[in-house]
């Protein structure tokens, strides 16, 4: 079930090839999206320049070769050479009926690929804060969408679970005792555990000495130290899973691929880079200098792969990860959903990996850059004390705000129902606020606006879907009845019906676009426009009080397809569709 553009563009392109095949001398006549919008094709103007002909003459010759019987009811040349195409009502009706009968709602994928997505990436024994919100939510929406398009998605949660701080943390665990309340706090308030360890490290010289010794033991593979380290990782997993469950994201323990995973490979990475002449010693450190990366005064910027003290940094680990993802996981596409400030770092890592032969040209690698979440002062969102805002607290604050809205708007609902709805709406609100802006843009966190039932918000979309569901409750029929049978034959006659049907036909194209361009905000924008288009349809075209049975069933068919598209679209964003609001 292609969209109008997907249907018309190949036909117009073929007509261009027929009309000007010789003159174009084999040039690609495919109609670009930029040359086709709102059923107005403007291919004649750029073609006219290449052919040395008046645009209207170009358009007229193309139309002479164009057969759109059964698709368009009207075709005309206007202005300097635009071609206006009017889709036939019967084509629109049959197309949207086919979408409604399709389990995929018109979504067709490309050839399946193996896509590795690196996202979320919290640190063991540290609180997840607001900075983790976007990497987690955007990454999860991309994972859901790409899976829906038929790709094999491999999630990689690159948690920080290795390094010198763990000497301090392990030693603190020894002192407080495994299973003690001080140790178990990692599951609920990991920052408390970390700060207690840090305070000891800074204040007690003997503790600091033991902590440093623990680092040596950890790196040497001492069994007891590794066991204690494993305890900390296990407690942190419980904490991570609590946050992921609250956010309703799809990450699990099987997706964990922390820094420790690559520890044994780091020496080999350095040896191979040095053997290939890609890395050289500079001031005692092993560095990669690439000519395309320079700083002030043209001085080269190094990617340090082994420090002068023999330790390894993020660059080494990231090179090991990309090598593993290509060679062992078989990735065709690798996505890093990481903060925008890491752009230069990843550019250098990718360039080094390609130079080393670990990242072939056949593998696409993308840094999906994530912008910051800002407060009212347009600075990075923090608490009043200036600390990073805890993600768990942020989620609960949103749920509480949604509950307050529900308590005022729907006091008729029982408390248990309002409790469930508040969580679905509150979590959906912060997810949608995050996803509805371009992932590399910053946005101001405005909780009052986010939980509002009006405007471009998550609750508004959830309310729109619930509103459609209520029509079927009033009709006493199941919304799940598939469109396509005789009882739900769709007929398009009214302008509002036509507008809604055309909007529904674009769903597949939008989802494919999200998968190709990695931009979930496109789907958010589409769903908001669809909700508004449905609202206009509902006001203009009575459904349950339609003038006759045929019209009533047709409009119920449009409503059913609208609900299914809304439900599927929200699911791809990781949002629930409440039964009522």
UniProtKB/TrEMBL annotation:
One of the record's GO cellular component terms: cytoplasm
DALR anticodon binding domain segment(s): 461-581
PROSITE patterns in alphabetical order: AA_TRNA_LIGASE_I (PS00178)
Ligase as UniProt keyword: yes
Renumbered ranges of motif 'HIGH' region: 122-132
Source taxon at top rank: Bacteria
Pfam families with a match to the protein in the record: Arg_tRNA_synt_N (PF03485), DALR_1 (PF05746), tRNA-synt_1d (PF00750)
NCBIfam families xrefs: argS
Family: Belongs to the class-I aminoacyl-tRNA synthetase family.
Protein's name according to its UniProt entry: Arginine--tRNA ligase
Organism: Candidatus Phosphoribacter hodrii
């Amino acid at each position: 079930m292609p969209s109008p553009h997907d249907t018309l563009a190949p036909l117009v392109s073929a007509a261009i090839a027929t009309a000007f095949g010789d003159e174009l001398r084999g040039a690609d006549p495919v109609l670009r999206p930029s040359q086709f919008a709102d059923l107005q094709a403007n291919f004649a103007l750029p073609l006219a320049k290449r052919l040395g002909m008046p645009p209207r003459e170009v358009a007229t010759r193309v139309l002479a070769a164009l057969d759109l019987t059964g698709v368009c009811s009207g075709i005309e040349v206007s202005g300097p050479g635009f071609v206006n195409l009017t889709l036939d009502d019967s084509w629109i009706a049959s197309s949207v009926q086919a979408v409604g009968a399709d389990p995929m709602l018109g979504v067709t994928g490309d050839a399946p690929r193996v896509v590795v997505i690196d996202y979320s990436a919290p640190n063991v024994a540290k609180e997840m804060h607001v900075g983790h919100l976007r990497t987690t939510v955007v990454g999860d929406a991309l994972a859901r969408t790409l899976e829906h398009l038929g790709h094999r998605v491999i999630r990689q949660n690159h948690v920080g679970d290795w390094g010198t701080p763990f000497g301090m943390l392990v030693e603190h665990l020894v002192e407080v005792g495994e299973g003690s309340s001080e140790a178990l706090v990692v599951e609920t308030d990991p920052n408390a555990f970390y700060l207690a360890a840090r305070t000891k490290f800074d204040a007690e010289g003997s503790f600091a000495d033991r902590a440093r010794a623990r680092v040596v033991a950890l790196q040497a593979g001492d069994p007891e130290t590794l066991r204690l380290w494993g305890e900390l990782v296990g407690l942190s997993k419980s904490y991570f899973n609590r946050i992921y469950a609250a956010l309703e994201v799809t990450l699990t323990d099987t997706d964990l691929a922390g820094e420790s995973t690559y520890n044994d490979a780091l020496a080999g990475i350095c040896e191979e880079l040095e053997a290939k002449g890609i890395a050289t010693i500079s001031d005692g450190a092993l560095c990669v200098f690439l000519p395309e990366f320079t700083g002030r005064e043209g001085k080269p910027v190094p990617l340090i792969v082994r420090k002068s003290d023999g330790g390894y940094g993020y660059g080494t680990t990231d090179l090991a990860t990309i090598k593993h993802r290509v060679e062992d996981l078989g990735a065709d596409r690798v996505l890093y959903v990481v903060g925008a400030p890491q752009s230069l770092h990843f550019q250098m890592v990718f360039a080094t990996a390609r130079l080393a032969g670990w990242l072939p040209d056949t593998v696409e690698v993308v840094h999906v850059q994530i912008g910051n979440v800002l407060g009212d002062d347009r600075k990075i969102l923090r608490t009043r004390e200036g600390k990073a805002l805890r993600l768990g607290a942020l989620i609960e604050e949103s749920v509480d705000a949604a509950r307050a809205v529900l308590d005022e708007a729907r006091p008729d609902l029982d408390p248990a129902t309002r409790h469930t709805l508040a969580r679905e709406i509150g979590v959906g609100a912060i997810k949608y606020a995050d996803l509805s802006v371009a992932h590399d843009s910053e946005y101001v966190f405005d909780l009052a606006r986010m939980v509002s039932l009006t405007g471009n918000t998550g609750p508004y979309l959830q309310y729109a879907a619930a509103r459609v569901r209520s029509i079927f409750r009033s009709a006493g029929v199941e919304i799940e009845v598939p469109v396509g049978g005789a009882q739900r034959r769709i007929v398009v006659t009214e302008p509002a019906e036509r507008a809604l049907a055309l909007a529904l036909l674009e769903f597949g194209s939008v989802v494919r676009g999200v998968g190709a361009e990695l931009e979930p905000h496109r789907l958010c924008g589409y769903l908001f426009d669809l909700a508004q288009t449905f609202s206009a349809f509902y006001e203009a075209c009575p459904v349950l009080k339609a003038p006759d049975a045929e019209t009533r069933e047709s409009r119920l068919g449009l409503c059913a397809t609208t609900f299914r598209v809304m439900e599927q679209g929200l699911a791809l964003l990781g949002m629930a569709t409440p039964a009522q609001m």
